[in-house]
Structures are given as structure tokens and as C-alpha cells.
Amino acid sequence: MTSSPHTGFGRNEADLGALTGVRSGKRSFYPEYVRSAERLENAVRALDRISRALVRTAEGPRGLVEAVVHAAAEHLHADWLLVAVADGALQAARPRFLLLRGAELIDDERLLPAEALPHLHVLRSRPWEAEDAGGGPIVRVPMTLDCEPVGGIAGLPGFGVDVADTDLAILRVLANQAAVALHNSFLLHAATKLRGKTEMLSEAAQRQARELAETQQRLIEAMQRQALDDERHRIARELHDSVTQDVLSAGMTVEVCRAELAAEGGHEQVVEQLTAAKDLTRHAVERLRAAIYALHNGSEEPPGSLPVLLERLSSVHLPSDLKVRVRVVGTPVPLPGEVEHSLLRLAGEALFNTVMHTTAEQALVRLRYRPERIVLTISDDGDGDPAQLRKTLKLTAATDLAGVHRGLANMQARAKELGGTMSIRRSELGGIMLLLDIPLPLRRNGKAAP
Q1: How would you list the strands of the sheet with 373-380, edge to edge?
Q2: Which of 25, 179, 330, 332 is the most buried if burial means most Cβ atoms within 10 Å?
Q3: Nearest-5° angle of CA 419, CA 353, CA 357?
Q4: Do residues 25 and 148 share a domain?
Q5: CATH number, domain with residue 324
Q6: Which residue, of 191, 207, 241, is where some domain finishes?
Q7: Considering the domain boundaries, does residue 309 fall inside one?
Q8: Which residues form the Signal transduction histidine kinase subgroup 3 dimerisation and phosphoacceptor domain (predicted)?
Q9: pLDDT in the model for residue 86
Q10: pLDDT of residue 9
Q11: What tens digit of pLDDT does each residue of 394-445 get?
């Protein structure tokens, strides 16, 4: 299929004109084509320089501005070229302006060429007027961001450089992309600094968390030692205020009887027995005083779990012939320090009551860990009466017997603080069994334990 020569020639000329911008069919066609090709080649090189300039955001805002200035100056073969950000726009951008003259970069207004100062003033204060260069060889284009003028580019093209519309378009593209890149560069560096601060804060938080955990552990250990120390001191006070005084009184009574019998004469055998009894009471007092001193000056206790603390507790109720065993059933679970302290005090008071108020020779402390509760029992083989103790507990709960028998009531109150109950039963060993039933999760003073 063919077409007329005139028709084919007209179409080819239109296509060539669309590609090159040359629409003339005169003898000047080829020179214009050459100039158009040169402009196209310059445009491609400029776009390549732009792309290389605008990907340097990692170097920071100044590195980006320097790259834009060099790219624009190279495109215009400029004697000098200025990039400036308008006052109030892109407030984080630094530097606010930069001028390239030869190989020198200037960001000090006092060192700028006199002919560049008016253009700097326009780009800073009236960037919307950047398109109007006021005539002359100076080239100016605005820098826009979100359709708002935020600065611009101004420059003096080199001698013999013919600035075409395509050159201005390229400078506008460069300026606009520079505005976006400046903004993104600031966001990148701000995010990097923020990430650094976040990492520092995270490390500080982790360090504080470790220190807090160590402090909590030391606090728990101190509370465990305090629980044992409290029990020692309480036993020491009881021994000093009651047992020791009773033994001393018995010794004094024995001495009075011995002296009276010795004065009457004829009771040598009884006097001898009383003298031996006196020696025994004196020896008992010495042992009690030694025990009180040991209790008051116990060695530093290392930390341990509740089962370990119960084992240690079973050895502080001396002097006594009571043999205490500790049994643990189930898998121990970690408990808050104050809860362990309360359970330890309950067990200690129960064992002390066994020593002081019964004829028991054996005691069994059993700690049961169950899925939803903890059961602590203290049993003995003494001569105590569970029914009588329950009656006494009920009576002391209703009235205050001048502080007498308050121990059981205090123990019951302590169990209630943990959200549990205390009951008194007959032990399988034959004496008293004190049963403490504490539900999980544990509670303290009516509130859930932390």
C-alpha cells in the first residue's frame, strides 16, 4: 500500500518536528536540528545529574544542597549559582542558602557577590516572584513544595549560553525535587536521631529494670532474714520474760527450803537433794541465757525459698527436746516476700506454742502446693485439746482477755489478711494440728498480692 509523495513527506516532517521541536523545512533545518539534539542531550545529562544529586540524602541536608548547586551550575555553565530557602519555610533545612562561584561555596551573606544579594532577598522574602528575574542575563526559578513557593534557584549563565525553556523546566524540576529531598533528608536525620535516643532510652529502661529486679530480690532476701530474726527475738523475749524467771524463782525457792532444813538439822539427805536441785536450776538458767544470746545474735541467714526457710525455722526453737520435721508436697511456686514472711511467722508462732504450752516431743510442718491453694499444717504429739483451743479462740475473738491467749487470734487475723482460713484439729500424731488454707492467687490485706 502506497501513498502520495506529498502526503508521506508531510507526515514525516510532522513526526520529526514533534520529536525535535524543529518545524521548519528551510535550509536552516539541519542546524536547528543539531541545536535541538544538543539541548536534548544536555537535558538528559542534567536529569542524570539531578538524579545523582537527589539520592544523597544520607549525607544530610548540607550535602544535598551542595549537590543541587553543583548540578544546576554545571547545567548552566554558571558564573555563580544560588540556592535559597524562603524565610519560614523548611525551618529545619540547613544551610538556608548556598552560592557556588567557581569552586568556592559561600553560606555567609557578607561574602556574597553584590549582584547576587537582590536575588537572595527575593528568594527569601518573595519566592513567588522568582519567575520574574527583572530582565537581564540572570536566571531564576521557584522552589515549590505542596504547591507553595519555599525558595528558589538563581544564577548567572556562562558567556554564550543560550537558556531555553527546556533549561528553565529542568531547573524547576531540580528546585522542586530539591525541596522534597531537603524535607525528606531532615525527616531521615530526625528519625535517625530519634532512633538513637529510643535505643538509649531502651537500654536505660532495661538497665533500670535489671536494677529494680536486683533491688526486689535484695528486698525479698532482707524480708526473709527479718522473718527469722523476728522469730528469734520473739522467742528470746519469751524465754527471758517467762521461762528464765520461772527457773530463777524455782531456784530461789529451793535455796530457801535448803537453808531452813539445814538450820533445823537432821535432814541431811533432803538438804543434799535440794542442793543438787539448786545446781540444776543454776545450770538451766545458764543454758537459757546462752540460748537467748544465740537467738539475739544469730548468724546472717542466706536467702532461700519458703521450704528452705521453714527448715531453718525448725532449728531456732531451742532449748527444747522437740524434734521438728518439714515436708513439702507439690512443686514450689515463687511467692511475694511479704507473703512468705507471713507464712513463716504463722509457722513460727505455732511451733513456739507447741514448745511452751504442750508436752510434745515431735512436730511435723507440712507445706502442700496445690494448683489453686497452699495448705500449711503444723502438727504435734503433745497433750493439747483441740476443742478447748477452739473455744479459747472463739472467746478471745469476742473479748480481750487482757492480752492473754491473743496468739491464736493474731494468727487467725494474719491468715485472713492472706485471704485464707485457720482451723484447729486433732493431729494424726495425737496432739494439735493447726491448718492454714491459703487460696491462690495470694492476697494481702484484702488485696491481690503483686
Answers
A1: 323-329, 362-370, 373-380, 432-439, 421-426
A2: 179
A3: 145
A4: yes
A5: 3.30.565.10
A6: 191
A7: yes
A8: 231-297
A9: 92
A10: 41
A11: 887 666 544 445 678 888 888 898 899 999 999 999 999 999 999 987 655 5
Burial class (CB in 10 A: 0-12, 13-18, 19+), 94: middle
- The answer to whether residues 33 and 170 belong to one domain is yes
pLDDT, tens digit (0-9, with 9 covering 90-100), for 267-318: 677 767 777 776 667 656 655 554 554 455 444 444 567 888 788 777 664 4
HEC sequence for 344-364: HHHHHHHHHHHHHHCCCCEEE
Same domain, 309 and 177: no
pTM above 0.70, yes or no: no
The answer to whether residues 187 and 323 belong to one domain is: no
Residue 361 lies in a domain: yes
Torsion of CA 173, 174, 175, 181, to 10 degrees: 110
Q: What is the DSSP letter of 158?
A: P
The answer to whether the beta carbons of residues 420 and 437 sit under 8 Å apart is yes
Domain that holds residue 374: 304-450
Is 322 exposed, middle or buried (CB count within 10 Å of its CB: 0-12, 13-18, 19+)?
Answer: buried
Question: Would 370 be classed as within a structural domain?
Answer: yes
Residue 214 CA to chain centroid, in angstroms? 13
Maximum separation of any 2 CA atoms in the chain, in Å: 170
330 and 183 within one domain: no
CATH number at residue 99: 3.30.450.40
Cell, residue 88: 519560614
Distances (CA, A) of 97 to 51, 64, 100, 207: 21, 12, 10, 44
State how far the Cα of 252 lies from the Cα of 260, in Å rounded to an integer.
Answer: 12
Q: In what order do the strands lie in the sheet with 104-106?
A: 104-106, 97-101, 80-85, 148-156, 139-145
> For 53-57, 330-334, 381-385, which range has the lowest pLDDT when averaged over its residues?
53-57
Q: Which of 356, 373, 365 is nearest to 308 (CA)?
A: 365
Alpha-carbon distances, residue 255 vs 263, 266, 280 (angstroms):
12, 17, 12
CB-hemisphere CA count at 13 Å for 92?
14
Question: Cβ contacts of residue 413 below 8 Å, gap of 6+?
Answer: none
Instruction: Report if residue 381 sits inside a domain.
Output: yes
Cβ atoms of 374 and 440 within 8 Å: the answer is yes
Residues 310 and 168 in one domain: no
Residue 69: CB atoms within 10 Å: 25
Within its chain, how far is the Cα of 31 from the centroid? 74
Q: How many domains does the chain have?
A: 2
